[in-house]
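Re: [ENG-882] Designed sequences occasionally contain unexpected residues at chain ends

Forwarding the minimal case from QA. Structure tokens:
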């Protein structure tokens, strides 16, 4: 018993061991690798680096709880090109943990708990191109430089809330970068020139919140080192409150062409100082995303700021803290008159004055989407019937509070160079029956409005028309040069006919209520190449499925470009939710008529075949015979029972029942009967008593069923004589008789059959199917009717003896 207990414990332990320690030394295993050996083991709660196939090319371990990478954890991964350890709480990495990763090109250690960075980590990573060390609690990079051997490094990200100092030699080894991102919000110390050796620099993103606020000199030093005309500079998290806080730009602003600010707050004072700095600089693109204006918009120096070089101004997500006091309108005109491309998006803008737009003589592109413009303020902005924005090519007023398409069309008609108009996400709910548009208009986006019908208001000059996410059921307009038509998210029941769009190449009609479409539908479009029609309510008929399968496999001229999984059956019910590409309908479902007719045909053919076969095998004959025999047997039994109950003896009234064929009747009547029944006393010394024969012709009771007659004849006769001849074997009757007699043989248990061969007949002459007769012929001796007269008495004697034999014994 104790042994058993120990065994159980052992088994239990080994089970536990087997579950947790599927690796060498208790390391978990991750098998989430795809065909391209990309292993995604993120979000798996690993606390150690899991075992992964050596074949892995990329390994994503982000969002786990791996706090440590040991020397052996990544051993053997010499093929790995990408290792992502982002967000793990990683605190410790063995100095040679990455030593075997010779092929590594991308390493992400961001958002961890690394307090010290060790140059030894990167010693062997000569091919490393992207390195992300952001947001770890180290306060300095350390020397010697981490990056000395990394000559291929092109993207470098480091820093975090704890980064305090950057020293001159910290970045030695870094020569040129496509992208540099430094989070230095709390930087205290920066040695001038630390970034200065890196050139060229493609894109620089700096978070310098603290330095801009408290140490402008430091911020200026950093900016000076990264500003080159070809470098795109992004500064984020700036709080520009005073004159001082914009001074870091003072020296470098002349070098900057592309400036982008993210998450910036700006006071009036800072703005005025900034405008003063921007006066006449070669800045060509200024982009501000996430701008908080804390002042009242009193930018008095604006009329002195020359922004002639600025081609593009982009502002989005603008918040004005004190919107009631804010009054910047008149100053804006000076700032916005030069840009070719002007975007003020999501800025709660409710008015741009006509006065302003009249000054925007250079503007080709104006995007004021996601603001609070109404039909009225739009009328004002576009100067009603007066000329304005004469150079404008693109106007984007999407996401505003616009309701009247006729107002819009009236206003934009005079923009004689307008080619693109985006009025999506507006409240247009009806369309006048006719409108005027600039003849140059090629692109019109009225998606996500509330249109229920379209009318010839839409211009025929369009090449791209987006009407998606409205309430349309129909689209029948002639658009001779239309290339792209977007009708997704409406209520179309079928594809619009292609005739009116001879040049259409792209049609999107997803998320409607299309039941199906067919090849002829597609063929009505002469030049259609791309179709997107997923997320509809497809009725998965056989025709549609076959058609779509061929279309999805790309055999048609039209490519289906959206995801194939989005083509889902809506009906019939048993296919609801199934992706069309996964449905295989059987021929029964698809061609019921064909199926039924073919199967009926096959069944008929089979029937005929079987019947033929049966006929050839004489099955019917056997059946008939069996049936008759069964019936006759029953009545014979009945008779016997009757006799038994009546107590009468089984009367044998005949000596022999003679079974013969009609053709042999003459022989029976002329020879057999006279000889047996009225024996001539030629042989007087041995007088023969007459034998009684039963002949069906003579002794059968008329009116009884013949089978019964035969049966009872056989019953009442001691013997059965078969007169065999060619004729006999051809007669059906004989067969029955033969068979009955055969059964009788079995039942009586005696040797009651006597065969007479009228003509020489060998067993082989008897057809095979008369197997019983054949058997009888081989087991019973038979008498042959001699052709020679002198041998006949001998024959008769033998026959008589045979007929009498048993009788004598019985007596
Ligand atoms: C790994 O999967 C997560 C979701 O589980 C996904 O967010 C991440 O992008 C994937 N990583 C890669 C490299 O595909
Ligand atoms: C992993 O870390 C997350 C948050 O860092 C924590 O909520 C979770 O409990 C940790 N899981 C394990 C298994 O340690
Ligand atoms: C924006 O910058 C401020 C500091 O000026 C910072 O506190 C805040 O977290 C930043 N917001 C975002 C979304 O980055
Ligand atoms: C700018 O506007 C102020 C008044 O607001 C005016 O005194 C000054 O002359 C203007 N300067 C230019 C260059 O127009
Ligand atoms: C108009 O603005 C919206 C939102 O900012 C944008 O999605 C769309 O692409 C713009 N349209 C054009 C034609 O640039
Ligand atoms: C039309 O505007 C919507 C919403 O602004 C945008 O998503 C869509 O891409 C635009 N359509 C085209 C064809 O540019
Ligand atoms: C239909 O056939 C495809 C391959 O031809 C197969 O992948 C799919 O599983 C099949 N779908 C069903 C429901 O049998």
């Amino acid at each position: 018993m104790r042994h058993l207990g120990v065994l159980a414990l052992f088994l239990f332990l080994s089970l536990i061991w087997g579950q947790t320690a599927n690796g060498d030394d208790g390391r978990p295993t991750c098998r989430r690798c795809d065909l391209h050996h990309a292993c995604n083991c993120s979000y798996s709660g690993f606390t150690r680096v899991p075992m992964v196939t050596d074949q892995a090319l990329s390994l994503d371990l982000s969002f786990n709880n791996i706090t440590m990478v040991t020397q052996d954890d990544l051993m053997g991964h010499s093929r790995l090109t990408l290792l992502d350890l982002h967000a793990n709480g990683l605190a410790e990495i063995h100095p040679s943990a990455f030593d075997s990763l010779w092929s590594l090109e991308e390493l992400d250690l961001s958002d961890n708990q690394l307090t010290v960075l060790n140059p030894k980590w990167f010693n062997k990573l000569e091919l490393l191109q992207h390195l992300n060390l952001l947001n770890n609690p180290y306060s300095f990079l350390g020397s010697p430089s981490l990056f000395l051997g990394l000559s291929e490094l092109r993207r470098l990200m480091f820093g975090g809330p704890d980064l305090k100092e950057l020293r001159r030699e910290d970045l030695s080894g870094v020569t040129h970068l496509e992208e540099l991102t430094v989070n230095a919000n709390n930087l205290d110390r920066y040695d001038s020139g630390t970034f200065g050796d890196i050139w060229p620099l493609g894109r620089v993103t700096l978070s310098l919140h603290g330095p801009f606020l408290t140490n402008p000199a430091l911020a200026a030093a950093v900016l000076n080192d990264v500003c080159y005309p070809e470098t795109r500079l992004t500064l984020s998290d700036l709080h520009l409150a005073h004159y001082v806080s914009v001074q870091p730009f003072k020296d470098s602003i002349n070098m900057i062409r592309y400036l982008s600010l993210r998450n910036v707050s700006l006071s009036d004072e800072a703005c005025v100082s900034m405008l003063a700095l921007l006066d006449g600089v070669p800045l060509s693109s200024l982009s501000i995303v996430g701008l908080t204006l804390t002042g009242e918009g009193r930018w008095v120096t604006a009329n002195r700021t020359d922004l002639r070089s600025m081609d593009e101004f982009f502002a989005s997500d603008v918040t004005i803290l004190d919107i009631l006091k804010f009054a910047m309108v008149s100053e804006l005109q000076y700032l916005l008159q030069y840009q070719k491309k002007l975007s003020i998006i999501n800025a709660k803008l409710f008015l741009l004055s006509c006065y302003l737009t009249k000054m925007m003589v250079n503007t080709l592109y104006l995007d004021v989407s996601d603001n609070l413009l109404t039909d009225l303020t739009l009328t004002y902005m576009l100067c009603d019937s007066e000329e304005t924005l004469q150079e404008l090519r693109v106007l984007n007023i999407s996401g505003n509070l616009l309701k009247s398409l006729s107002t819009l069309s009236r206003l934009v008609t005079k923009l004689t160079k307008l080619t693109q108009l985006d009025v999506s996400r507006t409240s247009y709910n009806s369309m006048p029956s006719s409108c005027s548009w600039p003849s140059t208009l090629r692109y019109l986006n009225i998606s996500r409005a509330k249109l229920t019908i379209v009318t010839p208001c839409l211009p025929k000059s369009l090449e791209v028309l987006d009407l998606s996410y409205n309430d349309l059921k129909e689209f029948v307009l002639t658009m001779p040069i239309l290339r792209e038509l977007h009708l997704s998210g409406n209520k179309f029941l079928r594809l619009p006919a292609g005739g009116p769009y001879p040049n259409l190449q792209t049609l999107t009609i997803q998320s409607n209520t299309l039941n199906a479409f067919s090849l002829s539908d597609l063929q009505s479009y002469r030049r259609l190449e791309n179709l997107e029609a997923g997320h509809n309510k497809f009725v998965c008929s056989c025709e549609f499925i076959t058609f779509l399968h061929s279309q999805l496999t790309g055999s048609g001229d039209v490519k289906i470009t959206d995801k194939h999984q989005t083509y889902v059956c809506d009906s019939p019910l048993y296919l609801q939710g199934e992706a069309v590409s996964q449905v295989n309908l059987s021929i029964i479902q698809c061609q019921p008529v064909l199926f039924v007719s073919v199967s009926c045909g096959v069944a008929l053919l089979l029937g005929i075949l079987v019947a033929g076969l049966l006929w050839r095998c004489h099955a019917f004959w056997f059946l008939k015979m069996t049936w008759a025999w069964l019936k006759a047997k029953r009545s014979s039994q009945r008779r016997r029972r009757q006799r038994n109950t009546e107590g009468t003896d089984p009367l044998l009234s005949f000596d022999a029942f003679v079974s013969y064929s009609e053709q042999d009747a003459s022989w029976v009547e002329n020879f057999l009967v006279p000889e047996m029944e009225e024996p001539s006393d030629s042989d007087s010394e041995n007088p023969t008593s007459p034998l009684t024969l039963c002949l069906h012709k003579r002794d059968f009771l008329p009116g009884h069923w013949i089978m019964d007659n035969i049966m009872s004849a056989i019953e009442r006769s001691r013997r059965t004589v078969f007169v065999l001849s060619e004729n006999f074997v051809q007669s059906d009757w004989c067969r029955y008789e033969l068979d009955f007699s055969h059964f009788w043989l079995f039942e009586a248990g005696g040797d009651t059959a006597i065969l007479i061969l009228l003509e020489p007949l060998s067993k082989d002459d008897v057809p095979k199917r008369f197997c019983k007769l054949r058997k009888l012929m081989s087991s019973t001796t038979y008498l042959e009717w001699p052709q020679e007269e002198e041998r006949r008495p001998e024959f008769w004697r033998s026959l008589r003896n045979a007929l009498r034999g048993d009788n004598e014994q019985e007596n």
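QA comment: On inspection the terminal residues look reasonable. Residues 47 and 404 are 60 Å apart (CA to CA). Proposing we downgrade this to a documentation issue.
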